[in-house]
Write a structure and sequence with these properties.
Length: 266
C-alpha cells in the first residue's frame, strides 16, 4: 500500500515537471468514502505545455516499468489525458487538468451555469462544472503558487446560483417521460430505459444540489442520494426499484414510466 509520505513525495516530483502547477488528491479518498482497494486519484493541474517525456519517465520510475501518459484528447474532449499506474501494489490514476479550462468552469459554477457534454465513460454526459467540484473537494498535495487555493474561492459552500439552476432543470424529467410514453407504445424498451435512467439522474443531481453536495460523475449518483444529510423521501430506493423492473411489453413499460413520474423530487 502506498503510504501518505510516499504519495506526497510523488506529488512533489510531479510538481517539478515542466508545466505542472499543482497536484491534488481527488475521488473517494479525498471525500473519505474510499475502500481499502480504492484507486488513488491525482489531479495534475497544468498551464501551457506539459513535459510529457518527463511524465513518462517519472511514471516508469515509480512503477518500475514503461508507462506512457496519454496524448491530449486520447481519452475524449473533457479528460485532457493521464495515465493509470500501479505503485507499490496500489492503483494510482494521474488525471491531467488544464488550469485555464478549470478556471472557466469554476466561474461558471459560481454563476450557476453548467452543461453536459459527450465524453467516453460518461453515459449521461460530462458535467463541465464537475471541474469546480474537483477543486472544491480535492485535497491539495502540492500547490506552491496557490493555484488551487485561488480556484477554490467561492465554491464552498456550494454556490447558490448553481443549486437553483440544477433544481430548475427538473422540468426535463416529465419532458423525457412524455417521450418515453411514445417509445412504450412500440415496446421500445431500450428507449424507455434511456429516458427513465436519464430522468432518474436529473432528479438525483437536483437532490445533491439541494443538499449542497458536488457531483463529479454518474457513478453512485442515484444510490448516493440516500446518504445525503436531508430527507429525500426514499428517492434512491424508489428509482432503483423502477429501473430494475422496467419490463418489455407496452403495458409494463407504461406502468414503469408512471412509477418513475412518482419517485420523490426536490
Amino acid at each position: 500500500m502506498l503510504s501518505e509520505d510516499r504519495l506526497r513525495l510523488m506529488a512533489r516530483e510531479l510538481c517539478a515537471v515542466g508545466g505542472v502547477r499543482a497536484v491534488a488528491l481527488g475521488g473517494s479518498r479525498a471525500r473519505g468514502t474510499h475502500r481499502p482497494d480504492s484507486d488513488i486519484d491525482l489531479g495534475l493541474y497544468f498551464e501551457g505545455d506539459v513535459d510529457r517525456v518527463a511524465l513518462d519517465r517519472l511514471a516508469a520510475r515509480w512503477t518500475g516499468g514503461p508507462v506512457t501518459v496519454a496524448s491530449p484528447g486520447a481519452w475524449g474532449p473533457w479528460v485532457e489525458s493521464g495515465a493509470w499506474l500501479v505503485v507499490e501494489g496500489t492503483a494510482v490514476d494521474w488525471i491531467l487538468r488544464d488550469a485555464r479550462r478549470v478556471a472557466e468552469q469554476c466561474e461558471r459554477a459560481r454563476l450557476g451555469h453548467f452543461a453536459f457534454h459527450t465524453q467516453p465513460g460518461h453515459p449521461l454526459g460530462f458535467l463541465d462544472v464537475s471541474y469546480a467540484g474537483e477543486v472544491a473537494m480535492g485535497v491539495p498535495l502540492c500547490d506552491e503558487t496557490a493555484l488551487l487555493a485561488g480556484l477554490a474561492e467561492g465554491l464552498t459552500p456550494y454556490p447558490e446560483p448553481l443549486r437553483a439552476a440544477m433544481l430548475q432543470r427538473l422540468w426535463q424529467v416529465d419532458f423525457l417521460l412524455d417521450g418515453a410514453e411514445k417509445g412504450a407504445k412500440g415496446a421500445d424498451a431500450a428507449y424507455v430505459a434511456l429516458c427513465a435512467g436519464t430522468a432518474a439522474m436529473i432528479i438525483a443531481h437536483a437532490w445533491h444540489a439541494l443538499a449542497g453536495r458536488w457531483v463529479l460523475n454518474e457513478k453512485g449518483l442515484v444510490p448516493g442520494v440516500s446518504g445525503l444529510p436531508i430527507d429525500t423521501r426514499g428517492f434512491a430506493e424508489a428509482a432503483a426499484s423502477v429501473l430494475s423492473t422496467l419490463g418489455s411489453t407496452p403495458e409494463e413499460l407504461h406502468r414503469s414510466i408512471a412509477a418513475m413520474r412518482a419517485v420523490p423530487r426536490p
